[in-house]
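tokens incoming
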């Protein structure tokens, strides 16, 4: 029932050709019938999903006695119309064969081929008679179960591993109704297929009349586990393993397998080590085996352990080396068999100095000549031998221990820090340093004269130091001397043809004198005032230089500091030195300036009062202050008392040796109405007080004293007092004696 499109047999090919011929014959008959029967179908073939809808028109262009559709579903009764439609909304008849007929000269009909398809209800993949765990190299059968699919002859089952198409199966059964199919395929997995995912896909190829994308359905993935026998990594575990004498080395036995293999080492009859890593040394047996074992099988790798030896030394020399002399280094290599030496390399500070290809048996002594310099002091030398196993391309490298050499060399004086010409500023001292590099460390001394020697790296020089001094650096290898010339430099600043204080606004010349700069040359001279560079000019002049600059000081420059600097450059080098003069402090005299804020041009004076005004003036030298009140009326004081008698115009005069400044002041007399206003207020207050007292006295007499009458007054019988208005209430009366009255 099934066939593989990739492996068609010869009988099947013959059958397939006959089938195609038969189909072509049927198509020709149908086409001939349509050509003879005067009806046309809107579709020559229809493909409908099971349960789907379909509609096909049948039309004619000739007169007829009747036409209709004959079908088990959707039949159309005979009619005289020229266009009739066969229509089914839910097509479920698998074997339906509709045809359109017409009664023309005689009855004829045209059949409409109908293909009803149905996608599978379920697609699944499985291993036939086996679990998912497989053994690499064995053959297994995969089966794809496709349930309830139609039509089967349009079905293709595709087999995938991951995203790779492995095979596909087609079917020849001519069944229009749904069927179940169970195609299978053979696989032979290897170790790389462990964890691989297989799936099958059922696809209906319904031709051009079918859906744009062929209907398909895919099974779930079938993940397989593949067990495989261990494979030992021979790259990491070669058949011959060298080990350096007096050293140990770790070797690794890595094996790939599933299930994961166990690793063991067989060192002898009863000496077994269970570990992936084995430490070998010169005491390890010559023959060792690594065994990798799992449930599938066992793999063994045998290898040979042999001891290598390599050393480096100097030839006929044990003392420190001297720079510039030639010495021999020797590399001794022993027991390299069964390897052969491919090449020997000499190394110094990771730099390969020489490589020479040699092929020599077991014992080799190889020599190289070196001529060390001072940079080689403490350098590490070693040799390496590259070995190759007989009959293979596998190589191994032997490396000697490092040989550290000591190199003695003659002192080298640092000429950058100790130039051949050293300037010193007159009146100052300077330290110069003599640094020397050498091995052994050199001793430093200074020769100032025949018997004047100073043992120190540092020497203090001044104008009293001899013109020529020498630094001597000495060690066991030799002596180095550097001669130094000491010369005195001098630089000064002064005014030109002027010794007195300067006057603000006038122009003066400053002069910078530079002496004894040879063998230096002057690069530039700069003038400075209060840390501000005023002028820089490049000049190149020999030993003596007088350089002048003009200044025009103002009053703010009084007390300013000026100096000059000369930048010198040693002949033939880029080394520079700077000379700086002592500071020149200048005194600037300037004309007085009167403070107009404290002395306005108009000053008011109130009649009857006096007032003080102040005349302050700034100037150098300090000015004298005077007031001019008239032709001969002059007051020498900063403060002037003015009143209504002072002249309308007065002048303040500030004078010093530079000049005179005058400020004229206008005295404006003003009346003082304050006393008048105060008197008026006092009169008003007094008047109001008198009125208040008068009113109060009247009120007091009326309210407090009362009214009394002595009319018809009678003396009291008892005491002779006078009765009050005839009433009985007596008024106490006191009798006065003559003496009281007189008093």
């Amino acid at each position: 029932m099934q066939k593989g499109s990739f492996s068609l047999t010869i009988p099947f090919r013959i059958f397939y050709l006959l089938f195609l011929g038969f189909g072509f014959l049927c198509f020709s008959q149908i086409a001939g019938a349509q050509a003879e029967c005067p009806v046309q179908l809107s579709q020559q073939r229809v493909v409908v999903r099971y349960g789907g809808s379909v509609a096909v028109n049948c039309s004619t262009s000739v007169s007829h006695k009747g036409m209709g559709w004959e079908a088990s579903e959707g039949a159309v009764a005979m009619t005289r119309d020229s266009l009739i439609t066969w229509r089914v909304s839910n097509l479920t008849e698998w074997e339906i064969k509709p045809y359109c007929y017409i009664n023309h000269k005689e009855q004829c009909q045209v059949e409409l081929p109908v293909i009803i398809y149905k996608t599978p209800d379920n697609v699944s993949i499985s291993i036939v008679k086996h679990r998912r765990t497989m053994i690499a190299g064995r053959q297994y059968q995969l089966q794809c179960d496709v349930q309830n699919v139609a039509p089967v002859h349009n079905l293709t089952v595709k087999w995938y591993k991951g995203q790779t198409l492995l095979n596909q199966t087609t079917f020849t059964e001519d069944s229009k109704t749904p069927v179940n199919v169970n195609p299978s395929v053979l696989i032979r997995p290897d170790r790389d297929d462990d964890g691989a995912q297989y799936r099958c896909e059922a696809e209906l190829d319904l031709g051009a009349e079918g859906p744009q994308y062929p209907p398909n359905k895919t099974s779930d993935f079938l993940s397989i586990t593949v067990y495989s026998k261990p494979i030992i990594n021979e790259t990491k575990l070669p058949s011959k393993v060298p080990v350096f004498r007096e050293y140990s080395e770790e070797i690794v036995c890595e094996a790939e397998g599933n299930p994961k293999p166990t690793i063991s080492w067989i060192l002898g009859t009863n000496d077994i080590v269970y570990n992936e890593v084995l430490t070998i040394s010169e005491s390890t047996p010559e023959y060792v085996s690594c065994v990798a074992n799992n449930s599938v099988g066992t793999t063994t790798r045998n290898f040979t352990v042999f001891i290598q030896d390599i050393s480096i030394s100097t030839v006929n020399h044990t003392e420190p080396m001297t720079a510039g002399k030639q010495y021999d280094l020797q590399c001794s290599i022993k027991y390299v068999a069964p390897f052969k030496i491919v090449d020997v390399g000499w190394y110094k500070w990771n730099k390969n100095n020489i490589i020479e290809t040699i092929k020599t048996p077991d014992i080799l002594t190889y020599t190289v000549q070196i001529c060390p310099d001072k940079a080689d002091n403490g350098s590490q030398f070693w040799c390496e031998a590259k070995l190759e196993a007989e009959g293979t391309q596998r190589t191994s490298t032997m490396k000697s221990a490092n040989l550290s050499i000591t190199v003695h060399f003659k002192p080298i004086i640092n000429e950058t820090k100790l130039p051949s010409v050293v300037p010193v500023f007159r009146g100052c001292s300077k330290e110069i340093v003599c640094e020397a590099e050498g091995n052994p460390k050199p001793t430093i001394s200074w020769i100032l004269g025949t018997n004047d020697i100073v043992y120190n790296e540092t020497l203090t020089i001044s104008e009293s130091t001899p013109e020529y001094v020498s630094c001597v650096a000495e060690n066991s290898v030799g002596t180095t001397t550097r001669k130094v010339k000491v010369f005195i430099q001098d630089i000064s600043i002064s005014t030109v043809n002027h010794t007195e204080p300067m006057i603000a606004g006038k122009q003066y010349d400053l002069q910078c004198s530079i002496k004894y700069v040879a063998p230096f040359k002057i690069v530039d001279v700069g003038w400075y005032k209060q840390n501000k560079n005023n002028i820089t000019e490049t000049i190149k002049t020999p030993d003596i230089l007088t350089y002048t600059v003009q200044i025009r000081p103002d009053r703010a420059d009084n007390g300013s500091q000026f100096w000059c600097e000369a930048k010198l450059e040693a002949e033939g080098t880029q080394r520079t030195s700077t000379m700086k003069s002592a500071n020149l402090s200048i005194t600037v005299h300037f004309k007085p300036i009167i403070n107009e804020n404290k002395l306005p041009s108009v000053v008011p004076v109130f009649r009857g009062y006096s007032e003080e005004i102040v005349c302050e003036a700034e100037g150098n030298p300090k000015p004298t202050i005077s007031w001019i009140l008239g032709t001969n009326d002059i007051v020498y004081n900063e403060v002037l008392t003015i009143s209504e008698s002072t002249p309308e115009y007065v002048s303040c005069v500030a004078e010093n040796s530079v000049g005179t400044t005058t400020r004229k002041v206008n005295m404006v007399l003003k009346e003082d109405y304050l006393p008048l206003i105060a008197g008026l207020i006092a009169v008003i207050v007094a008047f109001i007080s008198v009125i208040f007292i008068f009113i109060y006295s009247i009120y007091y007499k009326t309210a407090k004293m009362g009214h009394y009458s002595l009319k018809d007054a009678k003396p009291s019988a008892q005491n002779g007092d006078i009765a009050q208005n005839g009433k009985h209430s007596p008024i106490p009366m006191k009798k006065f004696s003559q003496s009281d009255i007189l008093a």
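note: The longest strand covers residues 298-314.
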